DNA sequence: GTGGTCTAGACCACT
DNA sequence: GTGGTCTAGACCACG
């Protein structure tokens, strides 16, 4: 498991996002056990507190559940899980639309650019990311 | 002139962005005089220091020029001005592509959503934004 | 025998409390044999260590006695047994009073609410809890 | 401002509770500015991080609002504020009822005890807490 | 081993 | 000065 961090967003939020992506792509499934705070901190090279912060955030969002001292698990609530993919997409689209709306780019021009770049990106992604941690 | 600020990005960067959008849409043209720092601070309800920071940033990017005591003006360099629109679009598309790439949303699905939301947004925008500053 | 655990208090303390409640309500009487650690752990779905810890706690409090290899029994000391009910009530009332004291809720309002909720709760309890372990 | 901490609950939650009580009793009103994290940490003798944690919790609960770098303020949403008192009382009553329900204490006996203890407590509280920080 | 909390001290950007 | 994040390291109870 690897995550490349940017310096704009808080690390713990990037961790949360990473897990959401893992769920959205099916790499993490219902009820699956996730690494302990300490383990995650180790593999991700972050401070255990930061990992803890990320996990707490995820728990508050209902993504994971943790009872007693057993390792935390992905929630079993399917509705929550299934909504994640949609949310990620919706958020991305919302942000994008908000960005371009003010410039009034013609729809056709915009879609053409997006299509081009997306396909380009997917091509790369396949080349790299074929194997999963 | 009104700008609604978010709490995520620095205010001064949002101001810079606002000017870029005004330029990209043709609401601010080559050589046009822009408000003084103090005036902008007043109309935008921001700290004069923030306005100053925004103008400094724009000057460094070559968007505006300030000579002596004369009011600042939009640059007369056409190449700079014409590149702005493209940059804004490119930035938006880059961010968008980066967001969705990890989720591997099928291109068709994605384009459909984007198209829908964009058209929706433009409709609203026309209804509201008929008058400009 | 079933106990529903919360995640706030230590499980072993919740087990102890459960036994106290059984004693206070007369479901466990003077000298009565109680399940072995292992048996309790099984029926309660808890770790044997936790059951052991609970029994140890109860022994220290004088609630149960264990001699040699014989199964543990409820103590025969009546004074201890009779004091339990009072303690449980006192603890509950203490915690409650401490909670509301700082908000200065008028006594009448408070008693009205409590009465309402208590009666409500008892009604439910009767409906469910007719049968005991 | 003083808060006496217990060792059972997390400090940051006790801080949150303290603020809720201040709101419920009217000592903190709509829109009022509250101390900075650092200041609170100083007066309460806690770590700034703990204060930060408490404030974040309160913000997530909608108790306080904080925009940009201005000092945080009590929310202006009256509905939220007015619900706090009720919540505090309801929580206390719920916990109390849950505690005594299992022991099946006769309602009359219980109410008598509560009334006695409450009045006692209020008498003390008046003697002490007449002055507000 | 697990999750959870706390302290201490630092850094950052923004106003 | 403000809010926010992060690291480092410690402690605790629980199982």
TrEMBL record, chains A, B, C, D:
<dbReference type="InterPro" id="IPR036388">
    <property type="entry name" value="WH-like_DNA-bd_sf"/>
</dbReference>
<protein>
    <submittedName>
        <fullName>GntR family transcriptional regulator</fullName>
    </submittedName>
</protein>
<keyword id="KW-0804">Transcription</keyword>
<keyword id="KW-0238">DNA-binding</keyword>
<feature type="domain" description="HTH gntR-type">
    <location>
        <begin position="9"/>
        <end position="77"/>
    </location>
</feature>
<keyword id="KW-0805">Transcription regulation</keyword>
<dbReference type="InterPro" id="IPR036390">
    <property type="entry name" value="WH_DNA-bd_sf"/>
</dbReference>
<dbReference type="Pfam" id="PF00392">
    <property type="entry name" value="GntR"/>
</dbReference>
<dbReference type="InterPro" id="IPR000524">
    <property type="entry name" value="Tscrpt_reg_HTH_GntR"/>
</dbReference>
């Amino acid at each position: 498991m690897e995550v490349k961090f940017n310096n704009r967003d808080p690390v713990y939020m990037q961790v949360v996002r990473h897990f959401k992506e893992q769920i959205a792509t099916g790499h993490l499934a219902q009820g699956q056990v996730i690494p302990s705070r300490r383990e995650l901190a180790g593999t991700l090279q972050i401070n255990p507190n930061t990992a803890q912060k990320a996990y707490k955030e995820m728990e508050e969002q209902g993504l994971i559940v943790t009872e007693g001292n057993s390792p935390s698990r992905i929630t079993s609530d399917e509705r929550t899980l299934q909504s994640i993919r949609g949310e990620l997409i919706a958020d991305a689209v919302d942000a994008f639309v908000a960005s371009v709306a003010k410039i009034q780019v013609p729809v056709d021009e915009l879609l053409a650019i997006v299509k081009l770049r997306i396909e380009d990106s997917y091509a790369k992604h396949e080349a790299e990311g074929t194997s999963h941690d």
